[in-house]
Design a protein that fits this description.
The structure is a homodimer of 190-residue chains. Chain A contains nine helices and no strands. Chains A and B meet through helix 6, helix 7, helix 8 and helix 9 of A and helix 6, helix 7, helix 8 and helix 9 of B. Chain A binds a DNA duplex (30 and 30 nucleotides) through helix 3.
DNA sequence: CGTGCTCTAGATAGATCGCTCTAGCGGCTA
DNA sequence: TAGCCGCTAGAGCGATCTATCTAGAGCACG
């Protein structure tokens, strides 16, 4: 049975990281949000904020990958799977008043030049996404080199759209990016 | 004649924001980097860090737009202009060890849900980029609606590529994104 | 020279930061 | 029951944060 406190801490941290980033989130705020005692953070994460950060990033990366797999599995074909992922992202943005976008992009930009362990955690998470998407397209019959390019293109479009949607408080960039991702995929399928 | 101190402060702030974000940058660090007295910040920006932040964001947005215009003007046609912008971004990333990417993306993600004045400043900057790119494509004979979609697609690709390049410490995403942007533009030109 | 204004210069306040520390609760086994 | 241990609980430390405050240098103008 998983420890409930450690899960509440990681859930709260992931949500706060996604909304306000790494440096903008204090440990006091995390324990308040998680209704957990302050000491528990250093009991479960003796490495402090940096260890908590890396583990939360890796977990968020896994969970978001699972979301992608779930949507892909529920879609009849690859094109509609990609389209569904973008429209789902747009809906989720609007429902949360443009707060819930990529779970690790904000942290990734913050820490890329300031903390090597945290940067590595974000790079590992992104790599699993790129590899999974590449495999998804390869299984559809696309050559591996092309599949990787389509995967990178799709993910760049997704992350860029997240940025513009949050800043502009509009879902237009996500819808345009989704259409571009579908177009890129269709072109790759010849 | 422009005040040299205020310029040094804004230059240092812009550079630190781009590398470590808004909350990760302290006012003490800014004045140290700018070789300016601490009091000068509150003399020139009585609104404190938030006012300094909004003005730096708006200025960075202007400067980056000028960079785009410069590259576009130096290119023989629209397609090569777009391609040159992406390859230039990739080179600059590699030269700065993946530190210098988008000057406002990091801040934009951090503040989107925490400070309305700062979010508005990032939104205004992004909007000028989208409008300028749209106009650039319209002048090449693309219908306005399509031109806006291509502009948004290109900028989403650029921002997403910045994120992945910085996290992965690789220029591959930028090169792939550049190729995708060119493909999107070519498709729009029929 | 004296006055006033802009800007420099930095000490300092008050709050918050990450982190360490001790104390104690509750459930386990001996 | 006694002893141990995982975990809760939060006070408090030194450092750092933003912001305010006073003091003075430098210059323009009468």
């Amino acid at each position: 049975m998983p420890n409930p406190t450690i899960d509440r801490i990681m859930d709260a941290t992931a949500e706060l990281f996604r909304r306000q980033g790494y440096t903008g989130t204090g440990l006091k705020q995390i324990v308040a949000e998680a209704s957990a005692p302050f000491g528990s953070i250093y009991h479960f994460f003796p490495g402090g904020k940096e260890q908590l950060g890396t583990e939360v990033i890796r977990r968020s990366g896994r969970l978001y990958l699972e979301l992608f797999i779930t949507i892909a599995a529920a879609s009849p074909d690859v094109v509609s799977g990609v389209a569904a992922f973008f429209t789902g992202a747009a809906e989720h943005l609007r429902e949360t008043d443009y707060a819930d976008a990529c779970p690790i992009a904000t942290v990734a930009l913050e820490v890329a030049s300031t903390s090597e362990p945290l940067r590595q955690a974000t790079a590992d998470a992104f790599t699993t996404w790129i590899d999974a998407a590449t495999e998804y397209f390869v299984m559809d019959g696309i050559a591996r080199t092309t599949a990787r390019e389509v995967a990178l293109t799709m993910l760049c479009l997704l992350e860029g759209a997240f940025l513009f949607c949050r800043s502009l408080k509009s879902t237009e960039p996500m819808h345009v990016a989704g259409a571009a991702a579908v177009a890129s995929l269709r072109a790759a399928k010849g």
